[in-house]
Amino acid sequence: MTLLRSSLLGSAAAFAVMGAAHAADLPVKKAVPIEYVRVCGAYGAGFFYIPGTDTCLRISGRARFEGGYQASYSRQNGTGNGDTSGYQGRMRINLDARTQTGYGTLRAFVRLDAGARTGYAGIGQSGTQQRIGQAYPGLGIDSYGRDQQFANVDKAFIQFAGLTAGRASSFFDFYAHDFELGGGTLGSDIASTNLLAYTVTAGNGLSATLSIEDPVFRRTPIFSPTVNPAGVTVNTNLANFAQSNAPVPVFIGYTNGVPSRYGFVDAIQRERLPDFVGALRLDQAWGSAQLSAASHELNVGNVGNGAGTGSGSNLSLPHTNSVLGWAVQGGLKVNAPFVAPGDALYLQGAYGEGAQLFTGYSAYSGSYTQSTATIQGQKFAQYFADATINPFTGQLQTSQSFTATAAYLHYWSPEWRSAFFGSYGEQSFSQGARRAQGAIFNLVNPNGANAFGSNAVGVPGTRFYQLSQALRDTYQFVAGGSVIWSPVKDLDIGVEAFYTQIGLKNGRAIDTDKSPTAYSNVAGINNGTFVPRTATQDSASMVRVRVQRDF
Questions:
Q1: What string of DSSP letters covers 347-360?
Q2: Which DSSP string corresponds to 444-497?
Q3: Which of 30, 95, 359, 454 is the most core-located residue (most Cβ within 10 A)?
Q4: Residue 536 C-beta-side C-alpha neighbours within 13 Å
């Protein structure tokens, strides 16, 4: 046994030596080095180097639930009337990529927002987002206007050596509802527009920006009295969603000096001149201040070809000239750590002519339509049109608007905070503009008929003219507050409530809820055989609950 064991061990040793010698003749395969993800500390927390590059990337996002209640005073026919509750689930993904270059930091930032919403307008679905192609509706019989999917390329911009190019927030904006959940106050807040801007930094927190911005996201339509224009193929209650033209009647013929023939101008605006925005901003330890100004082109088409309608000899009406609307805004933010760490106060005011979305008079109810209901079952509509077309001259007459907003954020403790906010605004149309629209009413609507529906102004001097809602000067008042609990970092659980009141600056208007058929009885209103219910103001309150996790 001893001899056998020695022989086996010797053989194994010989094979081991021979194997080692053979292995030494083979090529050695080296392990591929592992590219570890490295932390990038140059731009703050959360950045890491993209493997194989010198670019730092931060991935972040958000998940949100919201539910809300708003009183509805009407169950009249119409999408959304009668809804009192609404819900939504929202998501957000952010990608922030930065690279250091010889010219400074090269940055690219993209953000995608998406969500599913149901219920009343303002939380469950947004006509504004639908009109500008960022949301699409459910088409079920109980869903249309109440069920909406939302997707938006909220941000996609490049920043390099003072240049900002892509989809970003308008440089005109300042407060932009920073302390609010629902954005109920008045004021400009265009979070997503296409722009090309250049910013000069002068030191000590002072900067100046010139921005060329997409005008489509700042447009409020030119007033058109037509209620169901050609090309509309959807529910006429929502005609503004699919409107392909907006005929505006103008005089093109006279008999013995009296207007007797009319044609139509298409008031749909064309994509031509961009908005030019300039902003001067100061950011320091005490807070921020900004002055901004903007120009906004208003343009329409020509008078339609053809002989027109009516009698009398035709006149050659000049082409409607484009008009540059404009707006100015001033804003101030004051940090108040002497009250509590994190406290801050915002003050902001804006004025515009032919530029309603720059003043943000329709901020809560949305715009991109000439009139809309801020409140469900609203007694009368507010008209947000940037301009009217004078039927005598065919030229544009701009509207005026202004807003003033204040908001204060207070930290009761590191975990509890509240916001208090309020705003007031007005929009006005010149008396000459409204009378001019009224002058063409009888010619287009013979025998007391009303083809214009609730957009009709009526004949100046009549009872219907005094009570019609179209192009009336209005005001809006908003006040509200919130309480938010943050038990852990980046988690907010909060509730917000605010009150909105709209009203006429003078006179009364037909209450379209109590007298929904009044606009089909112009003759009865004028001769006193029909007396409609009227109103001077309307109001509603809304409560919104939010649970949000940022990461």
A1: EEEEEEES-HHHHT
A2: HSGGG--TTGGG----TTSHHHHH--TT--EEEEEEEEEEEE-SSTTEEEEEEE
A3: 359
A4: 4
In degrees and rounded to multiples of 5, residue 50 shows phi and psi of -70, 125
- Pick the more confident residue, 547 or 381: 547
Enter the pTM of the model: 0.87
- Looking at residue 32, the DSSP 8-state letter turns out to be P
CA distance 342 to 338: 9
For residue 209, give the DSSP letter: E
Distance CA 502, CA 506 (A): 12
Which one-letter DSSP state was computed for residue 331? Answer: E
Residue-wise over 262-282: b if at least 16 C-beta within 10 A, else e?
bbbbbbbbeeeebbbbbbebb
Q: How far is it, in rounded angstroms, from Cα 266 to Cα 506?
A: 31
Interatomic CA distance for residues 539 and 537, integer angstroms: 7
Q: Which long-range contacts (CB under 8 A, 24 or more apart) does 280-287 make?
A: 280/206, 280/207, 280/208, 281/206, 281/207, 281/208, 281/209, 282/205, 282/206, 282/207, 283/205, 283/207, 284/204, 284/205, 285/335, 286/334, 286/335, 287/332, 287/333, 287/334, 287/335, 287/344
For 60-89, letters b (16+ CB in 10 Å) and e give eebebebbbbbebbbeeebebbebeebbbe
> Which residue, chain included where needed, has tokens 């995608």?
112
Q: Rounded to an integer, what is the distance from CA 540 to the centroid of its chain?
A: 21
Predicted confidence at residue 76, as pLDDT, reads 62
Per-residue confidence at 447, pLDDT binned at 50, 70, 90?
Answer: confident
* Spatial contact of 375 and 73, defined as CB atoms under 8 Å apart: yes
**Alpha-carbon distances of 64 from 116, 148, 314, 550, rounded to whole Å:** 11, 16, 61, 9
pLDDT in tens, 131-140: 778 888 888 7
Q: Cα-atom radius of gyration of the chain, to the nearest Å?
A: 31
pLDDT reading at 473 higher than 70? yes
Residue 236: strand, helix, or coil: helix
Residues 444, 250, 504, 365: what is their CA dihedral angle, to the nearest 10 degrees? 100
Q: Is 390 helix (H, G, I), strand (E, B) or coil?
A: coil
CA-wise closest residue to 442 among 248, 262, 238: 262
As a whole number of Å, the end-to-end CA separation of the chain is: 73
Residue 28, pLDDT score:
55
